[in-house]
Structure formats: structure tokens, C-alpha cells
Amino acid sequence: MTARERATTSGCPRASTLSIVACDLDRRQWGVAVASRFLAVGALCAWAEAEVGAVATQSWIKASHGERGLRLMADGLTAPEALERLLADDEGSAQRQLGVIDADGRTAVHTGEGCLEWAGSRVGRCYAAQGNMLVSEETIARLAETFEAGSELPLAERLMRALVAAEAAGGDRRGKQAAALRVVGSGGGYGGADIVVDLRVDDHAEPIVELERLLELHDFYFGSTPDDQWLQVDDGLGAELRDRLGAFGHASGDLAADLENWAGIVNLEERVEGADRIDPVVLDHLRRTGSASESPPGG
């Protein structure tokens, strides 16, 4: 029997995994963070839908539990009710592990008796953390405690920090390979999309470190600076902007148009609104960029 055949006995890949499903009811966001010694685990484990909830399915992954769990909650079932329905007709439930959270922050978890040690979960306000084949229970304890301690943070950053802490506490006892972060919220993403963050590291020596780097890039491109931190463009700053934009070939005489055109090229259009004010992130990048195509921080 080949390694692939052994890994997919009964048609389901065995993924020893640590994950957390969570929501921020004030921001109306739901998300999943996951890490595993399993190729592209985010493609199968992490499921979330705005105003519906999130599902993590792992340990002999049954990916359909993710999609079906969301559909059940969209139809009005609570997280515990949806989980009960998923397990009721699952002959492999003894080897499954799931974490579910619904639109109102209610959670439900399942760790089958066939999951390999250490396996277990921890639930709290608006989150459920779970893992199997871990170094120890400390991994899930750190995952949960770090998430609880970051209530003032945006959900994506909060989940990311929790994942980092869990990895530092041991993580998957087989090693590292993949990680993913998915956060959704109605109209909260680029161009009004429901996807706020959707990042995956499918195969990497340090997947969580790489996921942190990708989240930093995501925040640079698609994050937002509070209005009270934007800078007014006075005559002096306006002259500087014209000079810098002109060096990149944007010198039409219309500062707003030139700034918008440059921002579109470097993918910062979400951070530009005319030329009366400027996002300090945009100004900093414009000042230190040697060319219009230079990589941003972390790139």
C-alpha cells in the first residue's frame, strides 16, 4: 500500500490539525484559522459564510461537513443542532473532529473517540478551539487563551495571534506543513465582497510564519486607517505628491487623478479617496518607493 493509499483509507484523508472557529459579533465577522502537517489543509478544513457562521472539519476530514454545516445554519439551525445533524448520519463520526459556530456566536464541538491523542477541544465566548494528534493539551489551552486575551483586535489578527501561540506551545506533533486563515463579513472585503481575509499556505517549512507575512501584506493592501489619522494635503504636501507622482510618469496636472492612477498600479486603490486628504500608509509607501513596482513591506 502506498503512502497516499494509507493516508486516504476509507476515502477520507486523515488530518491531525489544530483549528479555531470564532466570531466578532460587534464587527459582524466569522472566521477559521487552522494549521496542520497536511498539504493544503485550508482547502478542506476551513469553511465560513457571512451572517451564517463557520465550520472546521478535521481528523479523517469529511469536507462535505463544512458546506453542509453552513447550509444547515443558513436554514435556521443553531450550531449544536447543525452538528447533531451532521453526526447523525455519519458512519465515521468516531474518527471525526469538528468545531462549529453560528451567526449568534453559539458553538458546538465534537471529538470522536477514535481521534488520536492528544485530542480535545475548548470553547468560550464566541469561539471553539480543537485539535488532534497534538503534542499536548497545552496547545489548545494557548490557542484559546490567546484568542480570549485579544478581544480588542480585529478578528483576523486575533485568530492569527492565537495560531502563533498554539504553534509555540507544541502544535501538531508530526510537524508543520500548511496553515490557513479565512474571515468573512457582509460587504467587509475588497470592493464590498463578503470575504474579508482568505489566505492559505499550502506547503511551507514555516507555514504560520508565512501566513503572518501574508496577513501583513493583506493589511497593507486592503486594510484601513482611521479617518482621524489621515493627513490633510496642504500646499507643501501637495507639491511633494506632484513631484513624487511625476517621477513615476503621473503628471497630468490633476493631483487626484494622478494619485488614483498610481494607486491602481500598486494596488492601493482602496486606500485613496481624492487628493484633499491622504492615508499615511499611502504617503509612507510613496515616499520610500524607488519605483512604481517596488515590493511593499513584507513582500
Overall description:
This protein is an alpha+beta fold and 299 residues long. It has ten helices and twelve strands. It has helices at residues 3-7, 42-45, 64-74, 79-88, 138-149, 155-168, 207-222, 235-247, 255-265, 280-288; strands at residues 17-24, 29-36, 46-49, 53-58, 97-102, 107-111, 120-124, 127-131, 178-184, 195-201, 231-232, 277-278. The strands form three sheets. Strands 7-8-1-2-9-10 form a six-stranded antiparallel beta sheet. A four-stranded antiparallel beta sheet has the order 3-4-5-6. It has a two-stranded antiparallel ribbon with strand order 11-12. Strand 7 and strand 8 (127-131) form a beta hairpin. Helix 3 (64-74) packs across helix 4 and helix 6 (155-168) runs antiparallel to helix 7 (207-222). The two termini are 42 Å apart. Mean pLDDT is 91; it is low at 1-15.
Q: Write the CATH architecture name of the largest domain.
A: 4-Layer Sandwich
| Shape label | elongated
Count of spatially separate domains: 2
Question: Helical proportion?
Answer: 25-40%
Reading off the top of the CATH hierarchy, the class of the largest domain is best stated as Alpha Beta
Order of helices and strands: HEEHEEHHEEEEHHEEHEHHEH
Within CATH, the superfamily of the largest domain carries the name Aminohydrolase, N-terminal nucleophile (Ntn) domain
Q: What number is the mean pLDDT?
A: 91
Largest sheet: 6 strands, antiparallel
Strand content: 15-25%
Kindly, what is the distance between the CA atoms of the first and last residues, rounded to a whole number of angstroms? Answer: 42 Å
The gyration radius over C-alpha positions equals 22 Å
Pick out the low-confidence regions. 1-15
Under CATH, the topology of the largest domain can be stated as: Glutamine Phosphoribosylpyrophosphate, subunit 1, domain 1
Number of strands: 12
- Provide a count of the helices: 10
Write out the strand line-up for the largest beta sheet, numbering strands in chain order: 7-8-1-2-9-10
